[in-house]
Amino acid sequence: MHGRHRARGAAVRALGLVALLALLLLTVWASLMVGSGRVAAADLLPALLHPDRTDKAHLILLEVRIPRTAAGVLAGAALGLAGAVMQGIARNPLADPGILGVNAGASAAVVFALSVLGMTDPAHYIWFGFLGALVASLLVFAIGSLGRDGATPVKLTLAGAATSAALLSLTTSMLLTDSKSFDQYRFWQVGSLTGREPAVLWQALPFIVAGALLTLFLGSRLNALALGDDIARALGQRVGPTRVVCAVVVVLLCGAATVVAGPIAFLGLVVPHAVRLCTGPDHRWILPYSALAAPVLLLTADIVGRLIARPGEVQAGIVTAAIGAVPFVLLVRHRKAAGL
Questions:
Q1: Which backbone phi and psi does 191 adopt, to 5 degrees?
Q2: pTM for the full predicted model
């Protein structure tokens, strides 16, 4: 009887995963069709197979809609996976990728590139965001690993909070003395899918694919870590190396997502909470659900941003926080969402 119940639960979760994939495809379709400038469904395949740059619809699809939609899928999947992994290793339901100093490190490095090095091309200074995210995360992990117990969730959280505060102060001090850099930084900082060149997406793709592939091996390990370090060791898990691999995954995914879309907050926090209500605490299901649900939310936010302020737009990072805040408050008040 117990085995039959478990099999039925797995079948329901598999069907949910298929439904979520269908919803993602529908959102991708809407992202390609909705926006300023008329594009018909019949224009999509000809634009891909036989692009004609004298055709306005083809030009909109090739130069704007397809890169923008691809950026949403890549950044969303990366942030959803990173949030699920981060909450798993920190055993903290309110943890998000920013807890490792990713956003603060990326912001400080971008401001350094703008203000000190004088860079103005986003294709160049966004890579400083990746480098800053990497350095800040390594610094947080090194500080959190000090002491006999190694990198415990509490020490990682405290090290991340302290490092983020220090980097935020450094970023603010650089911006206060350079108003020109502040104008460029504030557009990047809110998080956006617009104006992303295909070359940038191709450069970020290997990092996201590598991070996503690594997460395939983390589901059962995160389940063991969720039971506590002692029980995880008793089950044969090597706690320290597992946390190192998880930290590498978070850095790869968050750094690449920051390159693609800027420091979009909140997505990695709210999506794993939402999918956990459907899947339960099993990370083998939470990870693929998060990888599909986060792009749906990000693309939906981007589409809403195109529609609510026409002919202008509201950036996806702002809309994501706005439409995700209320459901998140309801989720954290839910008894099942209070723990992992």
A1: 85, 120
A2: 0.84
Residue pLDDT, tens place only, 1-38: 556 767 777 788 889 999 999 999 999 999 999 887 78
For 214, residues 6+ apart whose C-beta sits below 8 A from its C-beta are 245, 248, 249, 252
Q: If you ran DSSP here, which 8-state letter would residue 14 be given? A: H
Angle at 71 between CA 15 and CA 123, to 5 degrees: 160
Q: In degrees rounded to 5, what are phi and psi of residue 66?
A: -65, -50
Which two three-digit tokens encode residue 31?
């992202």
Angle at 98 between CA 303 and CA 21, to 5 degrees: 40
Residue with tokens 């459901």: 327
Per DSSP, the residues of 123-145 read: HHHHHHHHHHHHHHHHHHHHHHT
Decide: 46 and 308 in contact? Cβ < 8 Å: no
Return left, alpha or beta for 266; rule: phi > 0 is left, psi -120 to 50 is alpha, else beta: left
Which one-letter amino acid corresponds to residue 273? H
pLDDT digits (tens, 9 = 90+) for 259-315: 788 777 778 888 888 888 888 888 899 999 999 999 999 999 999 988 887 777 788
